[in-house]
Amino acid sequence: MHTYELNIDGLVGPTHHYAGLAAGNIASTTNAFTVSNPQAAALQGLAKMRLLHSLGLKQALLPPHQRPNLRLLHQLGFTGSPKQQINNAHRTAPELLSACYSASSMWTANAATVSASQDTADKRVHFTPANLISNLHRHQEADFSSQLLQKLFQHENHFVHHPVLPRSLITGDEGAANHNRLCKTHSSPALNLFVYGKHALKTNADSAQPVKFTARQTYEASTAVARSHQLNPDKIVFACQNAQSIDQGVFHNDVIAVANKSVFILHEHAFQHQLHVLAELKHKADFDLQIIEIRNEQLTVANAVQSYLFNSQLITLPDGSMALIAPIECETNEQVKYIIDNLLSDNSNPITYVHYMDLKQSMRNGGGPACLRLRVPLNKKELASMHQGILINDQLLNQLETWVMKHYRTHLHVGDLADPLLVDEVLEALEALTQLLQLDTIYPFQYEM
């Protein structure tokens, strides 16, 4: 049965702001406390969804999480009415208030790890929501992501939902940003590449450890997901990130490598023991795996992080050719554009098109095109069995653009989070969104109404 790669993008929430909450994410910390434009951020994300839909790909969206997270504020010791909670947090711990307002759920590459039914022993699609323990503002996403995915993919004959991994430093899990599915076609069984930053229990297992920034994904988490998803051990490769690259801002593998079907593009400093990793991939692949390795003299790690070349989406078009969906920063960077132009002109690979997208609002917080989407391989029956209200069409895109223009602010600074009107604005927007997406009751405030 034909399998589609459904791209599910996170819809940017109304509280998108810059607070520098993510250590190790250079763009996030560099742009901390500048003014954001939530309306522009959401419209830029919708423009990317519209492009992929127009290219003939299956496209969907995940709604933003409810913010502020009043339950988290309560857990942090802020009591009283919502207004009192917010005022007290703003006065005594503004960084915690910012975390509770974070719109980071837009980066759905971190929402979960997904395994295709072609790859699992029970021939069902498996989901494991990421625990995201490395950062408070992301850790709070895990439970709602789990509930949301279960609501969207309910049919037990087709979908399996695993619990979030234990919330510990041993099993830190950052989701699909550290997972690549390599295959002949989306309908074929695949070779699954899991990337981790460290062994948490065997400290000497890897030759080096980052010293400046924390390695977020653990080997223990990656192996747990692979076991739970009933993947064939002979078709799995576990690879450790290059520690020096982590210290230069490569907090996830999708900052330094991108894969689609049988094409794998990566920087030469992506992995520890990279020659061994690439040899194992070639050995285990039962198809013609094309590895395109970008040398450091062509592009430094720092330049890769700044441009987010490897955070481009690499997609297959209906005619079988491939296209890069790249941030506009790649077009304005002469070195990066030269690399892309060479890829397009090289007839030995199937990449024939590039689309440069303006995603500046997301990029300034450290998330490029690939961060914004979760890839879910689905055959026709599985696609028909999921919730249809989140699947993109022209009518829904038009409705969402109108919704954004009505409900989103054009300027937001961390200081504005104390505004009590912001809470009412957000809840009104989310209530309207659930009706657009035919989702009924999904948010905590809706259960309290």
What descriptors fit this protein?
alpha/beta; 35% helix; three-stranded mixed sheet; single chain; 449 residues
Distance between the termini: 44 Å
Portion in helices: 25-40%
Calculate Rg over CA atoms: 21 Å
Global shape: globular
Poorly predicted ranges:
none
Largest sheet: 3 strands, mixed
Q: Numbering strands along the chain, what is their spatial order in the largest sheet?
A: 2-1-15
The count of helical stretches stands at 18
CATH topology: L-arginine/glycine Amidinotransferase, Chain A
Main CATH class: Alpha Beta
Mean pLDDT, all residues: 96
User: Strand fraction band?
Assistant: 15-25%
Tally of DSSP β-strands: 15
Number of domains: 1
CATH homology superfamily:
Succinylarginine dihydrolase
CATH architecture: 5-stranded Propeller
- Structural category is alpha/beta
